[in-house]
Amino acid sequence: MADGAPASPDLDGVTGTVPPDGTVPSDAAASRLLDERAPLFTADAPHIYTRAQWSARSPKRPAKILDRAPDHIVVHHTDTGNSTDLSLGHAFSLSRYIQNFHMDKRGWDDSGQHLTISRGGAVMEGRNRSLASIRAGDLAVGAQVLHNNEHTLGIENEGNYMNTAPPGRLWASLMEVCVWLCRAYDLDPGEAIVGHRDYNETSCPGDVLYSRLPALRRAVADRLEGSAAAAPKPKSKPKSKPKVKPKVKPKSKPKPPPKPNGGDDYGPGNPSQYYHDDDDWPGLLNLNW
Ligand SMILES: [Zn+2]
């Protein structure tokens, strides 16, 4: 970021196009910002950074809205660098990077995922209409799990978690986001929280993060039980749709190793990532996203 950038606390450092690998040092004030706010996201007072805040482009067309709740929350990793830049500026840059990638390289209408969580723990709206539809108990159809976009909601977690664990701030926000979503949609975390590899042939969300999904389900369940004991259960929109049986493989069954280049949500030059004539999403689809 250039010296003399505007001092707006929420928007400082977001005007550039810093790649999410952190090759460009960010403004010191913006870097400090997230450390001064703990926790960044709680289910009791959810704060989502809006598309306007991260300067999203307009989608090619508005997201399709289904008048029903998703039945699964899909955990992804972005497979971008494990940046040490925890700033909001970096987080917003990541959101722009993903949107540009999905729109320009994948040919999609907009960001594929509904929510993005930075390594600093900032939670951002991804696909257009996601936030409003979550609040309404509906689903904005994303592009994040091939053949399963019409019943799932996707969360992109910044970084690559094949060999390392997500940082505490990201983990804390992910857990709280899942609490928030389970409340909003009346979902059982033990059933609802899955990894991308449960649906598609991909290494996403990384071996380490995937191995922690049972802990995530337990933590979310504990949090929901604790809050249910302390307060009446919030109203949830009644849904008449019968439960869609997930095509999730048994969790005890070991996953086959991903094919080379097959697990990169951002992997270069993998033509198999493109899929034509999908019935639930027009245009190009990524087998591994
Ligand atoms: Zn994924």
UniProtKB/TrEMBL annotation:
Database matches in SMART domains: Ami_2, PGRP
Q: Where is the Peptidoglycan recognition protein family domain?
A: 46-200
Q: Which InterPro entries match?
A: Amidase/PGRP_sf (IPR036505), Amidase_domain (IPR002502), PGRP (IPR015510), PGRP_domain_met/bac (IPR006619)
Gene3D superfamilies found in the cross-reference section: Peptidoglycan recognition protein-like (3.40.80.10)
Amino acid composition bias (Basic residues), ranges on this chain: 234-256
List residues of the N-acetylmuramoyl-L-alanine amidase domain. 58-206
Region Disordered: which residues?
1-27, 224-280
Tell me its family. Answer: Belongs to the N-acetylmuramoyl-L-alanine amidase 2 family.
Entry protein name: N-acetylmuramoyl-L-alanine amidase
Protein's organism = Actinomadura nitritigenes
